[in-house]
Automatic annotation (TrEMBL):
Family, similarity comment: In the C-terminal section; belongs to the PPC synthetase family. In the N-terminal section; belongs to the HFCD (homo-oligomeric flavin containing Cys decarboxylase) superfamily.
Swiss-Prot/TrEMBL cofactor(s): FMN; Mg(2+)
Cellular compartments per GO CC: phosphopantothenoylcysteine decarboxylase complex
Catalytic activity: N-[(R)-4-phosphopantothenoyl]-L-cysteine + H(+) = (R)-4'-phosphopantetheine + CO2; (R)-4'-phosphopantothenate + L-cysteine + CTP = N-[(R)-4-phosphopantothenoyl]-L-cysteine + CMP + diphosphate + H(+)
One protein family per Pfam: DFP
UniProt pathway: Cofactor biosynthesis; coenzyme A biosynthesis; CoA from (R)-pantothenate: step 2/5; Cofactor biosynthesis; coenzyme A biosynthesis; CoA from (R)-pantothenate: step 3/5
Region (Phosphopantothenoylcysteine decarboxylase), start-end ranges: 1-206
Organism (species): Peterkaempfera bronchialis
Entry keyword set: Decarboxylase, Flavoprotein, FMN, Ligase, Lyase, Magnesium, Metal-binding, Multifunctional enzyme
Enzyme Commission designation: 4.1.1.36, 6.3.2.5
Protein's name in the database: Coenzyme A biosynthesis bifunctional protein CoaBC
HAMAP family: CoaBC (MF_02225)
Length: 417
């Protein structure tokens, strides 16, 4: 938020203390889903104070919040006045997340109103603040709501894009509360960044990320593919969203849940990925191609299943080259300041092959890692060296894929105009 003090001015928790999270709940039907978010926060070791609005208590009662959090629920500005709760709760928090955030709550937060304990808490918080909106599509798309969201984002708050799906009654559209697991994942990523998370350095940026592995059909039941799980690409998308970016995720044959606040475009083949990437990259500030794209595809597609014939060897499968999507994106950028990042999965001479690929593709950064049956594919960890076209190299030690994703975005953010 504007006017935040430096992180070290906030009252610090003891190093061994669990992170202190304030869960604000405003008065929408999606309040019941916040119970699942609360359960995930408490079970992962966070100390959670629930601050529901009076309207929220019409949907989920105080006893439920107290039982799930294991703490007293803060509902009134005038309770325990000697402890100054309208100031202390926000001051002492490591993270404030409001889920659901109604149109009314977003408007009050954007205009600095403070007529209850939750809005007072938002004004006194000097930690990262996350809003997970939930409302009908017309309310979300109204110019007043969009302006309020833009104001909050300019001040450094993370406003997660709502999901598309079933709303109250028979209505369907954009405005659904993102899945609680995805909201929790965003909160976890923000807390992991520590004091760096008080700055949403990708706010107002559009980034495109590809993930997964393309599949090139041979016949109706067979394809040429690869072992990519998509986890690194999804980590890149989720961390970018947690840093304030508008994210388009091009997902190729993955089975992972959609990250909160990310627009997902599903593709299958390299040709489909190329079409989607060129379209999404037209106005993007950065494009990160983390998907494993097949270099070749069968020259012909058999409309029926290819049968084996006893006593005969199978006919050779003729292959043709797939388009080089990364090189095309680097050569024909949407605008002069666009940053293009590639990935190189190598099995030998990793750095030498990576530097040669960086020069050949013409991208700004290339993330180079060694892969194999027990390395990277399908796992939750990774290690890499990020090569820059300016001659730099940034080693990223073995660790969670989130850490590598943050390292990539650190370098991208530093290069953006």
């Amino acid at each position: 938020m504007d006017g935040r003090p430096e992180p070290e001015q906030r009252e610090a928790a003891h190093p061994s203390s669990p992170p202190r999270v304030v869960l604000g709940v405003s008065g929408g039907i999606a309040a019941y889903k916040a119970c699942e978010l609360l359960r995930r926060l408490t079970e992962s070791g966070h100390r959670v104070t629930v601050v529901p609005t009076a309207a929220a208590l019409h949907f989920v009662g105080e006893a439920t919040w107290a039982a799930l959090s294991g703490n007293r629920v803060a509902t009134e500005t005038w309770e325990s006045v000697h402890e100054v709760p309208h100031v202390r709760i926000g001051q002492q928090a490591d993270l404030v997340v409001v889920a659901p955030a109604t149109a009314d709550l977003l408007a009050k937060a954007a205009h600095g109103l403070a007529d209850d304990l939750l809005t007072n808490t938002l004004l006194t918080a000097r930690c990262p603040v996350v809003f997970a909106p939930a409302m009908h599509t017309e309310m979300w798309e109204h110019p007043a709501t969009q302006e309020n969201v833009a104001t909050l984002r300019r001040r450094g708050a993370l406003v997660i894009e709502p999901a598309v799906g079933r709303l109250t009654g028979v209505d369907t559209g954009k405005g659904r509360l993102p899945d609680p697991a995805a909201i929790f994942d965003s909160c976890r990523r923000i807390l992991a960044r520590g004091d760096r998370a008080t700055v949403t350095d990708l706010a107002d940026r559009h980034v495109v990320v590809s993930a997964g592995g393309t599949r090139e059909p041979l016949d109706p039941v067979r394809f040429l593919g690869n072992r990519s799980s998509g986890k690194q690409g999804y980590a890149l998308a989720a961390t970018a969203a947690a840093r304030g970016a508008r994210v388009t995720l091009l997902a190729a044959n993955t089975e992972l849940p959609d990250p909160a606040g990310v627009d997902v475009v599903r593709v299958a083949t390299a040709v489909q990925l190329r079409e989607a990437a060129l379209k999404a990259a037209a106005d993007a500030d950065a494009v990160v191609m983390a998907a494993a794209v097949a270099d070749f595809r069968p020259a012909e597609y058999a409309t029926g299943k290819i049968k084996k014939v006893e006593g005969q060897e199978p006919a050779p499968v003729a292959l043709v080259r797939n388009p080089d999507i990364l090189a095309e994106l680097a050569a024909h950028r949407g605008h002069p300041g666009q940053i293009v990042v590639g990935f190189a999965a190598e099995t030998d001479q990793v750095l030498a092959n990576g530097r040669a690929k960086l020069a050949r593709k013409g991208c700004d950064l290339l993330v180079v890692n060694e892969v194999g049956e027990r390395k990277v594919f399908g796992g939750d960890t990774n290690e890499a060296v990020i090569l820059g076209a300016d001659g730099t190299d940034t080693p990223v030690p073995y660790g969670p894929k989130d850490a590598l994703a943050d390292a990539v975005w650190d370098l991208v953010a530093a290069r953006l105009p």
